[in-house]
Design goal:
Elements (H helix, E strand, L loop, with lengths): L1 E7 L6 H15 L3 E6 L25 H11 L4 H12 L2 E12 L8 E9 L1
Parallel strand pairs: 1-2, 1-3
Antiparallel strand pairs: 3-4
């Protein structure tokens, strides 16, 4: 099986990084082919804007959905997006490990705390 692990955490030596390494090791030992996309290490831009579609008509209003669809069907996506889509096409399974941070304000309005957890979707 071809497995794509999409990893998004700013610190590769974190617990999340250890879990990534554990998953890769176990999957490879089981005979699977594993490919990792480390979004932070790649400098992946999380926001979407008109600059992501260099072939679009700049005289028209930016429409993320329509411009994305057009770039896909016309084969004019940026190289980084096309490379990630190629990885997805090769994968039999995908696993995503994402850092989720929530800033919580208590009911009394005094102080706050940050809850960090990890979302893993397979």
């Amino acid at each position: 099986m071809n497995v794509l692990l999409v990893y998004a955490h700013p610190e590769s030596r974190s617990l999340n990084g250890s879990i990534r390494d554990f998953m890769v090791d176990r999957l490879v030992r089981a005979g699977h082919v594993v490919e990792v996309s480390d979004l932070y290490a790649m400098g992946w831009k999380a926001s979407l804007d008109a600059d992501d579609f260099p072939q679009r008509d700049a005289m028209q209003p930016f429409s993320p959905s329509a411009d994305s669809r057009r770039a896909y069907t016309e084969g004019t996506q940026t190289a980084d997006v096309a490379a990630e889509q190629d990885k997805l096409r090769r994968a039999s399974r995908t696993s995503r490990r994402l850092l989720v941070r929530l800033r919580l304000q208590p009911r009394g309005g005094v102080g706050s705390c940050t809850l960090s957890t990890y979302l893993s979707v397979t």
